[in-house]
Structure formats: structure tokens, C-alpha cells
Amino acid sequence: MEPDPRSIPSCTETIRAWTARGGGVAAVLPIHYPRALLRAFGLLPVEVWGPPQVDPAPGAAHLQPYVCSIVGNALSFLLKDGLDVADVIIVPHACDSLQGLGSLLLDFVRPRQPVFPLYLPRGRRESDRQFLADECRALYGKLAAITGRAPSEEELLESIRREEEADGLLAELHHRRRALSLTDLAFYRLVRAREYLPAEEFSALARSVLDTPPADPRTGIPVLLSGIVPEPMALLDAINEMGGTVVADDLACCGRRLYPPGVSSDPFRRMAERILDGPPDPTRGSPITERLQHLVRTARETGARGVIFYDVKFCEPELFDLPLLRRGLQEAGLPSVHVEVDLNDPLSGQTLTRIEAFLEMVAGQTEEARR
Amino acid sequence: MNPVNALRYHWNVNVLGPAVLRLQRWQAERRPARWDTRYLAPPLRIAPRTKELVARHWLAGRYANGYRKVAWVTSGAPVELLKALDFYVLYPENHAAICGTARLAVDIASEAESAGYSRDLCSYARTDIGAVLSGKTPVGRLPKPDVLFACTNICQTVLFWYRVLAEYFGAPLVLIDTPFVYTEEAAGHAVRYVRRQLEEAVPVLERIAGKRLDERKLREVGLLSKRASELWLEILQRCRHRPAPISVFDQFIQMAPIVEMRGDPETVDFYAALLKEVDERIAAGVGAVKNERKRVLWDNLPIWYRLRYLAEFLARHGVAVVASTYTNAWGELAPLIDPDDLWESMARTYIYPILNRGTGHKLRTMRQMVEEYGLDGAILHSDRSCKPYSIGQMDQRDRLIRELGVPALLLEADHNDYRVFAEEQVATRLAAFVEMLG
Predict the structure, then answer these.
(1) pLDDT tens, A210-220?
(2) Which residues, 6+ apart, have CB-to-CB distance to B398 below 8 Å?
(3) CATH number of the domain residue A53 falls in
């Protein structure tokens, strides 16, 4: 089944419908944050991954050219009134550049909306869980101050359960992706709708796709896609046209956010657990070995025969891990290729040529070589 | 402990090495100045002693494995814990800076680049990883770490970098994560979090050190750390005097002990001696720049491979760089260290470095320095390798110009990688800046 793209509401349509019902909007920068907390205050989280293809000039007046285009574009988009619909801006702390952006917004740019940073601890120790729970609690206080609302503990837990259900279905979509008979582009349009759809709408959409009878698994050279964000999305069609198929990902906007359900009955603690117990991620401080094991295991489970590292230029969290990941993958019989892009560049012939050559190399690899 | 290793350590570090270094110091004290003394004051008399002190530190590192436990730490880490447990403490950032000053950084960083590390990564990290991969170093030999101790109060980069080191060495990584302070005050739960991590680090470090932490010794180290930081701050503040007795370029060289030997008694003695010499300069009316006409601020890390070039270029025009947000960072927190309430004060001290605070705080610091040091302008080094320090500089520059009326220059470079230093362009921009200063 190829779902009708029209069945997935666009971000603009979703915001329009939401605000028409009296809801507020929270513009949220990458990567990890407690969706449930925002929803409990009647705020729809709408994520800002760049966006790609914006005029970078307004941001360039504040940021040096060696800052990544996700951060530069987000600032340009804001300065071009792209976030006017938002009632609040949430800036999770993922890296030095996002940290700098949050600080710039608070100190110099000063948008009309309140800006709330959220620090993400870099470990999974008890102290990290406690801190993140406290950080969520502090954010609760700030949201209460601007909305005049004070959701009860039960309302928070209800919101968490709604998000957990949506995340469970999101994980199921990832798990069954090959049998869904979606092109890679269609699949990523679907799963990335989680970046702006209310959880309950996403869950309904996911269920409708999962309820359709399974199709024959898609063919093509199976690869795993790693990086921050698959932009421009035309990349995915291009991979399919070149004979490849993305069977799994380690993308910050997708696979690294398949959060497991929490266990705690304390809502803030549970929000923290969910974020910290997600798959390995350099911005959460995961050791490189842990990331490597995750990639190899995911490749084995999904049949991926190679890894495409598709990175945004100047992204330190990705670039530091890359050499050891590639070496480890090679030792595990998984070849990889690395390409760097700028969110404002069109999909270049050079990038496509490299990916095509990589796919040909993977296709030509014998079973023995893979072992 | 292996007695052969102990003997080797004592012979080289306490007997032979110091004798050789004393001789080198004696020779250095008699060598003529290497920079242009038509515009710059002669070198500080203490300079050969600085070199001796720093060389002795690296010498101890060379023979540490097998005798002392070794910790590799980030420059803003709470080193007092390690010192109190008798670790030999190595700062990869300082090592990278030494490579940068010796113009070896690019050669060493290339080893990392050949292994796949992008040139867009911090050049300190590339230099350090390159040294690990190749063994190349100007300090003889780097000891292997028994523990890696990373504190995120200077950047997140250090954590990515230390995770790489953890893989290469198979050494445990102890993390002190310090939530970024966006507003004037750190949240209470953030300070509690840092304190808890410090307390949690103790049993891990004790296990590696093979000994228990002695609270009395920790207090002593805390006192020494505080005293050295206070002296350092006093030295910097003497530059409020006209002419400034030392320049920021002197400070960059003299800051090595406060970074890598904080908590040692020798460091306190060293800065007491430096303060004395600085005061003598003031009494004698000696300025770092002979014809000090204008006084400016330096923001961000040094450009290690062009210190002399920059010092001489500016001095030729009577421009003295007398204050720096960077060197100030190792002194400004001294008042926060309270040996009588060490755990709480360590948590506060290590959450508040300038690099862990917002862009607005840095602007306020710069404004304050402009007023207190009577500055006429500011040079903001836009350091490609240091995003947390550099992001915000464009607005900071604009506001310094607009609100304080001081010329401010954004100078594009990199602290260690000379391949991105466009000398002609820098000279043109500096000349225009000097002209604006009047």
C-alpha cells in the first residue's frame, strides 16, 4: 500500500487546526524533550529541524559560518517570522551550537515569545535521572507561569501515556517498515509527522498504516541511515532509484528517539526515564562502543548490509564518533560511506554519485566478504 | 608499586631532571630577548622559571606510569579531588597549546585527520588525538591515563573528545556534567546535581587511586588552589595600571601553572614571585608596550602560533592588549572557593566559568573590563575551533561598538590550526582596527 500523502496532514494544516481549537504552540528545537509536558499545558510541540532551504542571511548576522545549518536556519527562520505562530520556544541542550542559540535568543535576539532552555544530562546515572526530572519540574513551573495552567499529576501521567502509546506505534512502524510497502520517502514522511502531529492523531495514522495487510518485503540493497536529519528528503527517493532501501536508521530525528515506556509513577521522573533510556545517542553522552554495538545489532536484525553516515556539516557530536564507528563497522563486515551536507544545499550530484558507488560496492560484496 | 619504576621516577623527576632544567633555566636567563624590544618590554625575569616549572610538570608525567596514577582532565575540571588523591594530572588542552606554540599542532593534528577526524573538529582535540595515535609530542612522552576526568563546564566538545580517548585507552571516564547557566544564577537543582556528581566521583577515583580521600588533604589542596587563583587574579588586575606592566600575551604564557598545577604549593610560590616582579615593573614605570597609547581587550582563546606576531604588530602601533576574558577565567572564581565548605563551593565554582554562562554574561564581563581597565577597544578572536566561546561574539561586538562606543574587531582564526590563519587578511584588518582606535 502506498498511503495517500494527502492523508498525512501537513505541519501548517496541523497547526491551523490545533490553534483553531484554542490550543497553543511550542516551537521546539532538536533533539530530546518531554513532549508530554508540553501537551499537558495544551501546547502542541512543533519541532524545528532547521528547516531546510531558508534564506540563511538573517541568521548569518548573528552566527559565524562554522556553525551548522540546523542552528543557522532555525535562527533565520525565526527572524523571518517563521515561528510567529509559536507561543513559546523550547531549546533543548544538545550541543554547543544549540546551547549558543538558546543563549543568543535569551540575551540578544529576544523574540516576542518566552524562550525556555532545557538541559539534557550526558549520563544515565541516578544523579542524571534526578536532575532531568528536576529540570522537567522547573520547566513545568515556567509553563505554568505563562499559561496560567497547573496540570495535575494524573493529567501529566495521562499525557505521558498518550505519548508512550504514540511512541510504541512509532517503534512498530520502524520495526515493520519493510513489510509496509512504503517507499522510503513515504515512510519518513509518515514517521516524521511525529515531529508536529498531536500524539493521538499520529497514533490513529500509524494504526491505519499498521492495520493494512502486510505486503511482500521491499527489495533493494538494504542500508542503515545514520545522522541527524534526512534532508533534503529527496535523498530517500534517490536511494530507492539507485537500488537501495533504508531498512533501519540511527537518525537523531527518528531512530534515536524511539523512547521506551517509563516505569515510574512520578510524572517528572517518568519523563526523564523515557528520554535517558532511549537508544544510544552522542548528544546524550552514549559511549562510542555502545553506539557501535547498537548499529551492528540493528544491522543484523534488519539485514542492513551497509551504513550511510549522512551528516550535517560542522556537527561535532556526529563527527567525533565517526572514525571509530566506521572502523568498528568495517570489522563487523559492514561497509560505510560518509557524506556531509548543508541544509540549504540542494541534493548534489557529488553526494548522489558517492552513495550510488557505495550501493554498487555493497551489492557486489560477496557473502564471504560480509562474514 | 614496582620499585624499579619508583627508582626511575625519583631519579629522573627529582634528581637528574631538575638539575638539567636548572641548567637550562640558567642559560635562558642569560639569553637575549627573542622579540622586538624596541616596542616591547624585555621578557619577564620569571619567564625561564615558568618554563622550568612547566617542563618539570611534563617530566613528571613522562615517568608517571607505573609509579603514580595518571588522570587526563579537562581544563575546567575540579582537579582538587585528583590532587588530593595524588594523581598525576595531565591536561590534553595544555599539551595541545604547547604543540600550537611550537607550531607542531598541524603536523600532529594531521595524524588524526588521516584517521578520519574532520578538520571541522576542535584543533585541540585533533592535536591530542593525533598525539595519541602517533606518539608525536614535544614533551617527550605522554603517560597513559588510568582515568579520564571530563567536566563539561568549558564545552560539550570535551565529552565527545574524551569518549574517543576512552575507546583508545580503555580507561574509565568520569564525567562531571555542569548544566549551562543561561541566566545570572544557576538553578538550585543544577548546583545540587554538580555536587552530587562530585561526591559520586570520589569512590570511583578512590578505587583507581588505591587510597581513601583524606578530607584534610582535600582542604589543603582547596586552600592552595584558592590562593593561587587569587594571586593570578591580582596579577591580572595590576594591568589596570597605566602603562600595563604585562600584556595579555605575557598572561597567555604565564597562565600554564594556574591551569595545570592548581592546588600545588609551587604554583602559589610561583605566582607570588610573578606578582612581586609585576609590582616592581609598576614601581619602575615599565610597561609591557613601551609606548602604550591605546589599551584593548582580547576575547577568546589565544592564537598560539602567532602570539609574537600579534604582540609585535600591535606594540609597533602603541597598542597594548591588557585584559582578556580568557585569562580572567582562572582568577574570577577564586572568591567562590571556600575551603570550609568545599563540596558546595566546588559545585558553585565549577558551574560558573565564563564558558558555562550565557552570551549576555560575557558581554557584561567585557563591559566591566572596558571600564575597570580603561580600554579603548576590543579584539574578539572568532575561533573556529571553539564554538561556545565564539557564538555570541557578533552581537557582543555590535553592542560594544554601539553601547560603549569602543571599536571592536572580530578576528577570524583558530587557536591551534594555522592553516585557517590568513596572515595578509589579519594584517589588513588589524591595521584598520588600529586606525579606528586613533
Answers:
(1) 998 887 878 89
(2) none
(3) 3.40.50.11890
Decide if A210 is inside a domain. no
Q: In the numeric block, which cell numbers belong to residue B144?
A: 597513559
Q: Does any domain span residue A358?
A: no
Measure the CA–CA gap between A220 and B360, rounded to whole angstroms. Answer: 52
B87-106 confidence digits (pLDDT tens)? 999 999 999 999 999 999 99
Q: In what order do the strands lie in the sheet with B88-90?
A: B88-90, B70-73, B147-151, B173-176
pLDDT digits (tens, 9 = 90+) for B373-416: 999 999 999 999 999 999 999 999 999 999 999 999 999 999 99
* C-alpha to C-alpha distance for B181 and B187, rounded to whole angstroms: 8
Residue A35 placed within a domain: yes
Q: Tell me what the pLDDT averaged over chain B comes to.
A: 96
In a domain, residue A241? The reply is no
Question: Which residues of chain B make contact with A30, given a CB cutoff of 8 A?
Answer: none
Residue reference for cell 495514522: A205
Domain that holds residue A69: 9-151
| Angle made by CA atoms A130, B208, B68, in degrees to the nearest 5 | 140
Interface test with B, best of A68, A108, A276, A289 (most B CBs within 10 A): A108
Domains of chain A: total: 1
Cell of B404: 560603549
Q: Judge contact between B145 and B77, C-beta under 8 A.
A: no
- A 296-335 residues with CB below 8 A of B? 313-314, 316-317, 319-324, 326-327
- Residue of B74, B110, B148, B156 to mutate when probing chain A, most A C-beta within 10 A: B156
Question: Is there a contact between A66 and A47 (Cβ–Cβ < 8 Å)?
Answer: no
Q: What is the ipTM of this complex?
A: 0.95
| Rounded-to-integer distance, Cα A36 and Cα A24, Å | 14
- pLDDT value of position A107: 98
Chain A, window 151-170: residues with a beta carbon less than 8 angstroms from a chain B beta carbon: none
pLDDT of A371 reads 57
- State the Cα angle at B23 between B247 and B99, rounded to 5°: 50
